[in-house]
Amino acid sequence: MGDVYRADTLEKKLPLYKVEHDCIINKFAEITVCFRVDLKEIFTLSQPDYESLHQTWIKALKILPKYTIFHKQDWFVEEKYRPDFSQNNLSFLDRAFERHFNERSFLNHYCYLYITLSYPEKAKKNSMWSSLVRGKIIPKEIDSPGVITNFFDTVSQFQRILTDSGFIRLERLTEAEIIGSEEKAGIIEKYLAVSQEDVIPLSDIDFSQGLQIGAKYFNLFTLSDIDDLPGSVSTDKRYDRLSTDKSSCNMGFAAPVGLLLSCNHIYNQYLFIDDHTENIKDFERKARNLNSLSLYSRENAINKEWYDQYLNEAISYNQISVRAHFNVFLWSEDPEQLKEYRNLATAGIAAMDCKPRLNTKDIPTLFWAGIPGNASDCPSEETFYTFLEQAACFINHETNYRSSSSPFGIKMVDRLSGKPILVDISDEPMKKGYTTNRNKFILGPSGSGKSFFTNHMVKQYYEQGTHVLLVDTGNSYLGLCDLISRQTNGRDGVYLTYTEENPISFNPFYTEDRQFDLEKKESIKTLILTLWKRDTDIPTRAEEVALSNAVNYYLVALKDKTDITPGFNTFYEFVNGPYRKILEEKKVREKDFDIDNFINVLAPYYEGGEYDYLLNSAKELDLLQKRFIVFELDNIKDHKILFPVVTLIIMETFINKMRRLKGTRKMILIEEAWKAIAKEGMAEYIKYLFKTVRKFFGEAVVVTQEVDDIIHSPIVKDTIINNSDCKILLDQRKYLNKFEQIQNLLGLSDKEKEQILSINLDNNPNRRYKEVWIGLGGVKSAVYATEVSPEEYFTYTTEETEKVKLFDLANRKGSMQLAITEMANGARAS
Description:
Elements: H1 10-13, E1 16-20, E2 23-26, E3 31-38, E4 40-41, H2 47-62, E5 68-80, H3 92-101, E6 105-117, H4 120-123, H5 145-164, E7 169-172, H6 175-179, H7 187-193, E8 205-206, E9 212-213, E10 216-223, E11 236-238, E12 250-252, E13 265-273, H8 276-293, H9 298-316, E14 321-332, H10 335-351, H11 363-369, E15 384-387, H12 388-392, E16 398-399, E17 410-413, E18 420-423, H13 427-431, E19 440-443, H14 450-463, E20 467-472, H15 478-487, E21 494-496, H16 518-532, H17 541-560, H18 568-576, H19 578-586, H20 595-602, E22 628-632, H21 642-660, E23 666-670, H22 673-679, H23 683-692, E24 698-704, H24 707-712, H25 714-720, E25 726-729, H26 739-746, H27 750-756, E26 770-776, E27 780-786, H28 790-796, H29 800-813, H30 816-829
Parallel strand pairs: 4-16, 19-24, 19-25, 20-22, 20-23, 21-22, 23-24
Antiparallel strand pairs: 1-2, 2-3, 3-6, 3-7, 5-6, 5-13, 8-9, 9-10, 10-14, 11-12, 13-14, 14-15, 17-18, 25-26, 26-27
Pfam family, one: P-loop_TraG
InterPro entries: Conjugation_ATPase_TraG (IPR022509), F-pilin_assembly_TraC (IPR053155), P-loop_NTPase (IPR027417), P-loop_TraG (IPR043964), TraG_N_Bacteroidetes (IPR024451)
Domain TraG N-terminal Bacteroidetes: 5-54
């Protein structure tokens, strides 16, 4: 005859009675309030932050009434990233990004907190009083209504203390979230099935050989024996893999059994707040008994010393005595994989300086005690006495990286798990008060991944409706701009550069609607004045008036006579013809305005002159409505004629966008070109830009790679850095010995320094990515990963051989998208 198993219904054994007023009431008349907990992201807290967080927990726990049970339950569940491919607005590169990360595994974190009001009789029960094994359960009422009212008031204060700290946010769970609905499972159902899915199939719970729920097998590690615990604990530990000899990356004391334990597990933390006075009296009595028996056994004498030390600590430092229990549940549907998980858990517990103890005896009872609202079923023999400060060190403090709640942002990657997340570094920080502007300063040495990050950022800004204007000196954005141009059939993606075969050219007099506002008129006058008076003193008032009149009369003529082609040639002819007659009629003297000198100086820009191509573009290009424009200045940055003109066109283009495009997001990104621009009288423009762009829903971004540039440039120090609340740094290990200068210049805190120096120290070799630090107003900062799909890689690449191959292929196929796809497929195959 085989084994006979006793089975029973869950309804009969379930220790919970009902859910009422968003509280769980169990069959022992204990009341539990449930919260969802939001914690800070891992690797974003410093050592002082952990100290403050630890003190916050202690302050909150101290106000809870006696016989309260604190049960924090952290779920860490292996999930897969599943993008929504049904979105119609996904671009070619967006779709490639989502395909690259599709089905990527990551560890998701869910955190709940249950506070239970118990009573003395229940607090003293051991495992034989568990509702799982008792035949009959008689509910008991908590006799005084005032006790319940006081409990709820205290819980509200507890919530306020934690929330006001800024480190933790508690959200009270509703009845529907506790018991579930027809569409979505509640936390009780999720726990009993050990699943975070919204729809959960029915499964048997089998305790015959440990614990098995459906196809899931379980192991349990407990931290409940004093002999298994370390001699001392701390609020945090140094994470050596992200630390250097000049920086220290910190993690919570319990992090090795939290996010750093990369497998399916639940970390339960129980604190039983008994009657402190009664506990001390009980220890005093036991100490006296052991003293009486010490003559008969040396063990009794040693134990008596331990009791004395505990009592001395409690009385001398006003420590609160509590009971504690911590355990880690592991699960997997594959028994062989569960063995690997055991090894990971063993290493994690050992990293806390604790002795790993695989508990096979108490797994049914401790699983049952983990049911929300049933923490009092945790057997007393599985708890140990300690003080509140020491017990609070075992609380898990961190969560994984979270996406911004804003719909706008850039897709970065969690540095720990590789999961894509949306990071808003423009709007949300301003709404939350982290920053007062959207400007950005980017610093990264050559090879740090700076071009990939900036390409990745501007691509996503463009696809979310932003007008992007880029000023570059290294062809970093040629691939992206060409792709945009071909995808939009030339309607967007304008790449303006100078070559002998195709010299750079503009038409400052062209607008699609032939409307010229004050800003446009002023930019035209400034441009002509620069060409006219480049090597002479500043113009006289009479010359300024004459030039202003010439421009205004010409623009009136453009409106009245549609047969005039807007351009510098017709402007030159207008000045030399009709305007000359106007001056003669007004009897303007030669010494006030020498029109012959004016005509002669501007002749090189007229038809047949040396630079006749410069201001007479036949493309009729109105840059106001172009959303992606690149000015490539590498070939003309030392040209005395072309460079000043181009920089003025840049200035006019963006200011025009700023003032005329109401309610539209605008970005100007100046790469290494800012050094050349600053030499040519554009310094005042950069200062003006950084101080006023925020008023026009815009942001200015400066990118540089040399530390000496930012140290020695007053423009960067006094204007760009001071007016850029978002600072972005890439791998700074090349500047390790200079980093103190950078830290002082950028006003970085020690916590931010430690985060920055941890960049790329522990990258996953199975993934191709570079890390980047983003700091927002000195309030929020974190390190993210820039990981892209092969399609994005070949779009952004600055490697000369890859770019040449890509453009050759695009010309042969007649499509940049097909060329990128072919090269990406080839990279995957290799």
